[in-house]
């Protein structure tokens, strides 16, 4: 477990982690594939080698990143995108040698996933003519030929938690957490914070699984959460968690996806009674990160780290929110928020629609100093 928490009815305990400042709902804290285009090259050829943790084309996080490269290639046929699997569980020296082996003839190495950064840093020193891009983790310190792009998962996780808190009927929600790397920890803990921001008396249950790919483990985690009374389940475990939320949805719970639009991946071709249980997905725009990196390399701009957050469209809940008889975003609900006139800072009841509440939370992030 990442944490063990049960929200109390005491207002100060419920609010101590989140004290609104500028807005009423202010959060305090998201094998090989070749892809070619068919237009005339604009500049010198650029061979891009993606390093992924799972077989290419199987993990939604990786699929979205590869899509970003494909979009660049559609505008410039001189860009070639290839992908190879390299396990992050290997010793560092083996990771380095395997990345170098599969990318020996490539110009750019893009590693998708938290954990490759140390290997890229070492390789960047050894091969200064190449560009090395880490997606999901900074490269510290930046080298002249590196780019590190990470995400503010706390923004997307907080919004997912608020969404869960607005739809739960039994005041018990859950989350499936994958390997305890930094992005997952940020997702899980900010999800807790978001739930309690709109539902201070809600309980949050966590099932941690040591995998991003074992769908069976994800399904078992979901069943465990439902047995604990959770009626909304958030996926923070990649493809494994995707299997979990599909199981939960099939059993009648509301669910929230992760990384990309899970209605087009995990829930594709599912019957309406199942897809209607998918409230939204907490997106991490790996496609945007990849495009940002490749465009920077083309312009000769390297040697930096950057965090993509909700202000840049890098993370957040997938929108627009789509209501149905099952999931109603336009229904007014009571929420406990801090009143501007409150002398003690305790929350008071206010009634807004679910969509209005989520929009105010997103606006709060986007207005953050």
UniProtKB/TrEMBL annotation:
Keywords assigned: Cell membrane, Lipoprotein, Membrane, Signal, Transmembrane, Transmembrane helix
Residue intervals of the ABC transporter substrate-binding protein PnrA-like domain: 104-317
Compartment annotation: Cell membrane
UniProt key word Chaperone: no
UniProt entry tagged with the keyword DNA damage: no
Ranges that cross the membrane: 23-46
GO CC list: plasma membrane
Name listed for the protein in its UniProt record: Basic membrane protein-domain-containing protein
Annotated organism of origin: Catenaria anguillulae PL171
